[in-house]
Design a protein that fits this description.
- 32% of the residues are buried.
- β3, α3 and β4 form a beta-alpha-beta unit.
- The protein is built from 13 helices and 13 strands.
- It has 428 residues and is of the alpha/beta class.
- The chain is 39% helix and 20% strand.
- It folds into three domains: 101 residues, GTPase HflX, N-terminal domain (Rossmann fold); 160 residues, Rossmann fold, CATH 3.40.50; 64 residues, Alpha-Beta Plaits (2-Layer Sandwich), CATH 3.30.70.
């Protein structure tokens, strides 16, 4: 018995955009092309109309809509992708005019996220974002959607399907929010446990397809999927990274950013993005070979600022420098390191930069805490990492790593070396 493999041809897509001057429409349509290809479609053309505002009924003006209709007919287009967010009536009117299915930018990103999500948390977050998007877009068709009863107590128009669908979505959203709250609570407990154990975290953030997963694989042999696609990695991955000085840190790979990321997606992935916001060091990974690299850095920086990240925690990592021609013309935020994750260039310099940044954030102290101040030991344990602990007749002797801002509090308990004391006595 022979089996034949059935291969499905990719959908043929036409991209449409209205350039209002609020953003770089040409760069945005390039990004939309990559997004569409990441979703599995083939882009065969694009139409950009320069207009002060999109048409309220059909997004494109009448002339450009007719052009789109003709293009779809001649090129056998299966899908129209709009580089903006459409209203239900705009989608319906474009579909009626072109006889082709229409999705907007937000729907496309949600579809890619649904395709890439692997963990239960990622799937919950994607579903919640999809429901938030669909809820205000529910449309009814009058009495044909009414559920008519057929017996005593069931006569009358009853509940319309539109109302029923809206109620079902609201219930499902509430259930998802409760499940995600539990996940966020567990994530928060794990974060507190890491802080208590003195675990240092370094987060990889940046524009999608900048090479974060490739960098993580190069530093940790993590085996994370690294493809030349947008949103190849969606779910956060954590691996241990050993620095040259012997210090171990936790390296976290996070979801990539895009321009005009849908607001509901940012909210839905809040707990995931908080991994970056709470990290001790943030590596803002950028594709130095991309002509829009400066814009990508600014987008990522703006999102990090919205999450409450401090700029002094950020190291800008210019990746793919082996391909870049304009690397010295690029802007940077914080410290900057030029690397090639794929070829392993300058990874040693990046690790040293991480070490330097961590040295500025923590201090190692040898302390002698009197028994009368025993409560301070618990405070130190909760806010730092105790490397060694010994009970002596004079109190508890500990070696501890503390955030640098805590050092002044324990200056009176610092154990001075004998040589230091002898030198000090010479100046008395």
């Amino acid at each position: 018995m022979e089996f034949y493999e059935i291969t499905q041809e990719p959908e043929r897509a036409l991209l449409i955009s209205v350039d209002t001057g609020d953003f770089d429409a040409d760069a945005s349509i390039e990004e939309l092309t990559l997004l569409t290809e990441s979703a599995g479609a083939q882009v065969i053309g694009s139409i950009i109309q320069r207009k002060s505002t999109p048409d309220g009924a059909t997004y494109l003006g009448k002339g450009r809509l007719a052009e789109a209709e003709l293009f779809c007919h001649n090129q056998e287009v299966d899908l129209i992708v709009c580089d903006g967010e459409l209203t239900p009536s705009q989608i319906r009117n474009i579909e009626n005019a072109t006889k082709v299915r229409v999705v907007d930018r937000t729907q496309l990103i949600l579809d890619i996220f649904a395709l890439r999500a692997k963990t239960s948390e990622g799937k919950l977050q994607v579903e919640l974002a999809q429901l938030k998007y669909s809820l205000p877009r529910l449309t009814g068709k009058g009495k044909e959607l009414s559920r008519l009863g057929g017996g005593i107590g069931t006569r009358g128009p009853g509940e319309t399907k539109l109302e029923s669908d809206r109620r079902h979505i609201m219930r499902r959203m509430h259930a998802l929010q409760e499940q995600l709250a539990e996940v966020e609570k567990r994530r928060g407990l794990l974060r507190k446990r890491r802080e208590k154990d003195g675990v240092i975290t370094v987060a990889l953030v940046g524009y999608t397809n900048a090479g974060k997963s490739t960098l993580m694989n190069a530093l940790t042999d993590a085996g994370v999927l690294a493809e030349d696609k947008l949103f190849a990695t969606l779910d956060p991955t954590s691996r241990k990274l050993s620095l040259p000085n012997g210090q171990d840190v936790m390296l976290i790979d996070t979801v990539g950013f895009v321009s005009r990321l849908p607001h509901d997606l940012v909210k839905a992935f809040k707990s995931t993005l908080e991994e970056a916001a709470e990290a001790d060091i943030i590596l803002n990974v950028c594709d130095a070979s991309d002509i829009h690299c400066n814009e990508h850095i600014e987008i990522t920086t703006d999102i990090l600022r919205d999450l409450g990240c401090k700029s002094d925690n950020i190291i800008t990592v210019m990746n793919k420098c082996d391909k870049a021609e304009n690397v010295f013309d690029l802007i940077s935020v914080g410290k900057t390191v030029m690397i090639s994750a794929l070829k392993g260039v300058n990874l040693d310099l990046l690790l040293k930069e991480i070490e330097k940044a961590l040295e500025l954030k923590s201090v190692t102290l040898n302390l002698l805490i009197p028994f009368s101040k025993g409560g301070e030991v618990n405070t130190i344990r909760n806010n730092g990492k105790i490397l060694s602990e010994e009970f002596t007749p004079d109190g508890t002797k500990i070696q501890v790593i503390l955030p640098v801002e805590w050092a002044d509090r324990y200056k009176d308990y610092v154990i001075k070396r004998k040589r230091d004391a002898e030198l000090a006595s010479l100046f008395v």
